[in-house]
Design a protein that fits this description.
CATH class of the largest domain: Alpha Beta
CATH superfamily of the largest domain: Type I PLP-dependent aspartate aminotransferase-like (Major domain)
EC number: 2.6.1.-
Shape: globular
Bound molecules: pyridoxal-5'-phosphate
Distance between the termini: 47 Å
Pfam families: Aminotran_1_2
Mean pLDDT: 94
Structural class: alpha/beta
Number of helices: 15
Organism: Streptomyces guryensis
Strand content: 5-15%
Number of domains: 2
Strand order of the largest sheet: 2-8-7-6-5-3-4
GO molecular function: pyridoxal phosphate binding; transaminase activity
Oligomer: single chain
Protein name: Aminotransferase
Length: 392
C-alpha cells in the first residue's frame, strides 16, 4: 500500500528543513495563510461552551447543516435542506462517505486524469475501482472520453471543476454534455466543489446549475479547507439524496460518532465570513499570473494559465530533454535538494513531464521561490518579479 505521493514530497521537505535548509514549499495542496481571526475566535468561544464538550448529532450541527444547505442551494439551483446534508471530516471523508454508499465491491468510478490522487484513493478505500478518464488538451473531461471508459460496472463519475492539479474549469456547454451523458446512462455524478471559490474566469458553474434534473443522482461535496485556509480543522460535507445521507450518517455514527463540535462551530463562523475567500481569490489570481509568466520565461517550460484553483501545472518536458533529467520526479527531487523549492512531480497525478506548483502562498515567499527557480533553471531573459511589488 502506498501513501499519497504529495505527502512524500512534503516529508522530504521537512527532513531538509530539520537539517537547517531554508526550504520553500510550493508543493502543498493547501493555502499557506493562517485561518482568519474571526473563525479562531468562534472556536475559542466554542471551547468555552460546555455544550460543545459533549456528544452531538451524528449528522452534524443543525445550524451548520442549514447554512451549508442554503449555500449549496445558492450554488446549484435545486432546493436542499439541512436534512439533505451530512457533515464530514473534510471533503475527502465526504467523498468516502458518498462512495461507500454508492459503490459495491468491484464497481467502477470514473475519475479525471490528470487528477488529484485522493479521488482514486477514496474510491479504492470504499471498495470500488477508480478508472482514469484522460482529459482533453485543456484538461477537461469529454463525453467521448467518458464513453470510452464506461463499462457495465460503471456507477459514478467524480467531477472536480476547478480541478487539482490542472485548474481546469468546465464551461457550461461541456457540463451540459456530461450531464446528458450521465442521465442517459443512469450514472451518479459526484461534484467535488472544494475549489469553487477560486475561479478566475467568471465561468464557474456547478453541474447541477446547468442540469438540475440530475439532483436525484447527484452528490455535492464541499468544505472549508481551501476557501477558508482550514485544512487542519477537518470539516467538509456532502449534500445528497436522502438514502445517501442515511448511509453516510450511519457510517459516521458507527465510526467517528460525529465531527468534533468545536470544529463545526469554527466552520459555521467561516461560512459567515465572505471576505476571506473573496480576498484569497483576488490574491491568488494575481499570484497565478506572476508565477505563470515567470515559468514561461524559463526555456523548456510551457505553462498554461489555469482558469481556477491554486496550482500552475506546467509542461516541463522540454526542460527535461534539454537538461538531461529523465523524469519530472528527478527534476522535482533536484529542485528540492539544490534550490530548496518543493514542487510536486506530475507522476503523482498520472502526468509525467509536468510539475504542480502551488501559488496559494504569500507574495514575498512566492517571489523568492520564483527567483530561486529562475536561478536554478535559467538562463532566462531579464525577469520581472518586481512588477508585482510595484503593483501592490
Ligand atoms: C480536488 C480535491 N478534493 C478534495 C480535497 C480534500 O479536501 P479536504 O482537505 O477538505 O479533505 C482536495 C485536497 O487537496 C482536493 O484537491
Amino acid at each position: 500500500m502506498t501513501d499519497n505521493p504529495i505527502f512524500a514530497v512534503a516529508a522530504r521537505a521537512e527532513t531538509l528543513r530539520a537539517r537547517g535548509a531554508d526550504v520553500i514549499t510550493l508543493a502543498a495542496g493547501e493555502p499557506q495563510a493562517a485561518t482568519s481571526a474571526v473563525v479562531v475566535e468562534a472556536a475559542v468561544a466554542a471551547v468555552r461552551d460546555p455544550v460543545a464538550h459533549h456528544y452531538g448529532p451524528a449528522q452534524g450541527d443543525p445550524d451548520l447543516r442549514e447554512l451549508v444547505a442554503a449555500n449549496v442551494t445558492r450554488d446549484t439551483g435545486p432546493a436542499w435542506t439541512a436534512d439533505d446534508v451530512q457533515i464530514a471530516l473534510g471533503a475527502k471523508h465526504a467523498l468516502f462517505l458518498a462512495l461507500q454508499a454508492l459503490v459495491g465491491a468491484g464497481d467502477e468510478v470514473l475519475v479525471a486524469g490528470p487528477g488529484w490522487p485522493g479521488h482514486a484513493e477514496v474510491v479504492a478505500a470504499a471498495g470500488g475501482v477508480a478508472v482514469p478518464v484522460t482529459a482533453d488538451k485543456e484538461f477537461r473531461v469529454s463525453v467521448d472520453a467518458l464513453d470510452r471508459c464506461r463499462t457495465s460496472r460503471t456507477r459514478a463519475l467524480i467531477l472536480s471543476s476547478p480541478g487539482n492539479p490542472t485548474g481546469a474549469v468546465h464551461p457550461e456547454s461541456r457540463l451540459r454534455d456530461i450531464a446528458d451523458w450521465a442521465q442517459r446512462h443512469g450514472m451518479w455524478v459526484i461534484s467535488d466543489d472544494i475549489y469553487r471559490a477560486f475561479d478566475y474566469t467568471g465561468t464557474y458553474q456547478s453541474i447541477l446549475r446547468v442540469a438540475p434534473q440530475l439532483r436525484c443522482r447527484s452528490v455535492v461535496v464541499g468544505g472549508v479547507s481551501k476557501e477558508h485556509a482550514m485544512t487542519g480543522w477537518r470539516v467538509g460535507w456532502l449534500a445528497a439524496p436522502r438514502e445517501i445521507i442515511a448511509s453516510a450518517r450511519l457510517h459516521v455514527s458507527r465510526t467517528i460518532t460525529h465531527v468534533p463540535t468545536v470544529n463545526q462551530r469554527a466552520a459555521l463562523a467561516a461560512l459567515d465570513d465572505h471576505d476571506t475567500p473573496a480576498r484569497a481569490a483576488r490574491d491568488y489570481a494575481r499570484r497565478r499570473t506572476m508565477l505563470v509568466e515567470a515559468l514561461n520565461q524559463i526555456d523548456g517550460i510551457d505553462c498554461p494559465l489555469p482558469d481556477g484553483g491554486m496550482f500552475a501545472f506546467p509542461d516541463v518536458s522540454g526542460l527535461l530533454h534539454d537538461r538531461g533529467w529523465s523524469s519530472s520526479a528527478d527534476l522535482a527531487a533536484w529542485l528540492l535538494d539544490t534550490a530548496h523549492v518543493a514542487v510536486v512531480p506530475g507522476e503523482a497525478f498520472n502526468a509525467p513531464g509536468r510539475i504542480r506548483v502551488c501559488f496559494a502562498i504569500d507574495d514575498e515567499t512566492l517571489i523568492t521561490a520564483i527567483d530561486r527557480l529562475k536561478a536554478a533553471l535559467g538562463p532566462v531573459p531579464e525577469a520581472d518579479t518586481r512588477q508585482l511589488e510595484e503593483a501592490r
